[in-house]
User: Fold these one by one.
Assistant:
Number 1:
Amino acid sequence: MGTHSTPHAQARRLQWRNVLARHALLRWSCAPLAAALLAALGWGASRPGWITLLRGCAVHPLLLAVLALALTAAGTSRHKRRVQGRLALSWLAALPIETPLLHEVARLPLAVGALVLAAIGVALSTGLPSADAGGVLLPLAIGAGIGFVTGWYWRRAERELGPGSWYASVRRARAGTLRASLRPLGYWALARTRVWGRPRVTARQVLVVLLGLPMATPGAQALAAVAATLIVWHLLALLAAVVRVAFAAAWWMAPTPTRLGRFTAALVHLAWLRQLAACVLALAALAAFGRPALLHRGAALAGAWLTLCVISGATACAIAWRRRAHG
Amino acid sequence: MTAALSVQGLSAGYGAHRVLSELSLEIGSGQWFALLGPNGAGKTTLLHCIGGLLAPQSGQITVSGIPLQGRALEAKRLLGFGCAPERLPDLLTGRQCLEIHAAAKQLRTLDEGTSSLVRAFEFEPLLDRFVDTYSTGSRQKLAVLLALLGEPALIVLDEAFNGLDPASALALKRQLRERVAGGRSSVLLATHALDVVERYADRAALLLGGRLVHTWEAQELAALRGSAAGLEGAVAAAAAATANPSSAA
């Protein structure tokens, strides 16, 4: 496999070299960043909490092995599918060489394994008994090894992922008519928000929030936390979408005789109305708690947020406009 | 008579990399001008300067006598620019793209020429679909429709026939020819399709290393149509003469 994987590895090495050659800041910050990460790893691994955790894990080797197996199997299966897709579309795909699939898929678990090994090594040097280190390492290695093989051969049902517009709805389709209007610029930002807010993405945010709640949290509070997460995500996505679309649309509209004011109004106002609606919804939910102080604070926050949205949207439009050549 | 496009002493590039050097060019009213040149010669850079997508380092561009640098809005009212198909907005439908450009050009609805091209392209079923579901050819059609919208005095197209099926390509050529013949528009087409240039263009120029090195007038193009080597041979000869002036002399 060594010689077969050469073009892929060489291409990646050259691409990285070019990136580092082009960006001086990245080039000079790489080594300090790596050193800082290693120092942080060393510091974290020498903490008493880490040693206690490892000693606790050493008591349940079977559980540890099963956990390592499950996580590695799921991760490998998913990672393999992604790597396969990437290699199939690679510019080197047509070359008469064996695709370095195993090499590409194994790199991630090997890197994670090396980090875990280093962290256990540091703990070993700062007081972890060698028996406990062995009691953690052995089940982890066995579980990860079996998990990698399982994940490699595990064929999960593949879901067909469509283009981003699957998640955005067509607005005001009027067969046979065309009404000249800059209003669809606003739809562009809304469609981008819907793509960023599709269930596949928001489900992850919701899961993280739910996992972060204490076990004894009442259901109503958990639901409120989920609702708040979705609203905050929607507000952030709307703001980011306006900024992103401003730059793409300014470029696309550059050869047309459009004025900045019309462009900004068309792009920002629909997204801002959505922001307003989301804020009103959130305030209505806060009002249901029956705590005026909380409602007042929420109203002030919503006002500040809506002002920020207008300012940042208009600023993004102005910057994007100025980047064009004329007018 | 005012030229549809006048470019005087244009220099442009990206950062320290200069692509166009002191380029001058004039396209008369009701004229189809073809811009030829190898990859990297600067054709797209020139078109981007005319479209207002790239600021020139020096020089002046006027559209029907209106300077693009000083009176951009007025100049752009006369301009129809075909953007690269991959730069079309993915999350808008074809109809929405047309609506935006129509509003920008202060039109109420599609002009008859563009409407007939929509029919010739069989584009109606695609109008209410998102651009990110379009094929390369469909994107190209939309880019062309946007450029032709509102009967602009100057139509600027970059490789407009790429990806078009033969019927659509023919419809576009006829539409452009009709507009040019009627004196309603001038066309600046950057292309590698020499057969299109031979048959349809009124003038052509070869761009090499950021400079126009040879221009073929209408009579010369007509003469090349009947010759054995054709425009292909003439372009090769002009390129060779530029690369090695002493041997050409």
Note: Chain A has a mean pLDDT of 87.
Number 2:
Amino acid sequence: MLFLLIPFVLSFLISFTDLRLGTPYPIRFVGLGQYSRLAVDQGVLRALRNNLLFGLFVPPIQTGLALTLACLVNRPGWRLAVPLRALFFLPVLFPMSLVAVIWRYLYAPGPLGPFNWLLGMLTFGMWQPHDFLHEPRWALPALALLSVWQGVGLQMVLLLGGLQQVPVDLYEAAAMDGAGPWLCFRRITLPMLRNTLVFTTLMTTILAFRLFDQVQILTQGGPADCTTTLMYELFRSAFERQQMGRACALTVLLVGIVIGLAALQRLAVREQQL
Amino acid sequence: MRGTLAVGLACLYSWPIAMMAAGSLRDGGWRNYAAVLSRVDFCSLFLNSLCISAVVVVLGSLINSMAGYTLARASFRGRGLLLSLVLLCMMIPFEAVAVPLFYTASRIGLRDTLVVQTVPFLANAFSIYLFYTFYLNFPRELEEAARLDGAETWQIYLRVALPGSAPVLASNGIITLLASWNSYLWPLLVTSTARVRPLSLAIAIFHSAPPLDWAQIFAFGVLMVSPTLLLFLLLQRHIQPNALSSGIK
């Protein structure tokens, strides 16, 4: 824990200075100067926008998919239930770095790139091939897709755990009253899963603001800052430009956002227990 | 109908994995694997990953369960403050402190070692909290019986509390293992030689180093996931979905 708190307090303090490594100038206290500079920095604003887009789209899609998968494989006695469950969990065992490398291959440009080829097949040749990782419109969604692919398995397992704790007699009682499967899902499954859903969705949202590995490996923030993120900007200011003051101010911003989301999570989960 | 949909999704879902497995055998077959093993010291990379993850999981479980147990059972001044510090630390993402931590590590000469890849991850607020909430609901009767038999506190912890927390040990262990095995940012910052590099970083470096040979890259990928896959298949019967979700209740 000290490894978290002390560095964080240090960065908090450094964020009020203009510390740059490798320059002979003495450190100056700049107050909120770093922060006001961040507020007009194109790179940071881009990063914030990308994180927000990621956090807005990925968690709902991933949670929806995870819930679908969990419901599909939650069939005790079905022969394929266990193998399928294992299969959907598989990518969780893949380090994100490996996932990124595999998907760079899948996203290869031209009609022979596997992903372009698959889309061409599915649309009977209507699909125009794209260079997913290098076109501004496609780069961020491309990163989102591979993140969902890797993350959905863990979320599915967490939701399965929740599903299996729903008492079976609730469904039996509902069936006796003549409720169909859709009504059961809406009136029993969803309310009973509420806490798990809130927890996993916000967990994914927090991860969206910590996005780094995929960006560093696949796009380096490009094209034209379309996939840069707060973490990536932080990495760049600290290790490429040696601007520690700026990096620390970004740290504080990132922690502020994550703490806000985490607080929201605690609030939302607790609410129902009352 | 439900079954067809599930199988269809599974096919789409396993497509990237199938691509990797098939790609690793293209033009050259098993020779791709031999080429990978001659280009990198796979064994040492694997051992690095294994050492780091094993230390983080084993020592971490011990330290965090002790901390959680103490917070749940002992009464001392500052307990409330300590507990709120744990809650606060749970919210600070590791990424946020990576930069200052990196400079601390270089200052004390720990760059490019295995030690620096484990120590920052041993004590973990999330794990402490998991153990803390578990021990709050852990029946005191067992511990009191042990105390009547003359056991010291540390004996009670080792003989009663630690074995009793098997479900949390399992779920916390899996989560920690995955996080440690898959870590990328921290090794990227602190390692500079292949001697101490973990697999998760090595694959990214291998793939960006010329010549770009996808068959070899995929062979590397298959090699690196097979140990985890094997472990998962062996343990699969024992991993209940509830084990993972019990922690978040």
Note: Chain B has 14 helices and no strands.
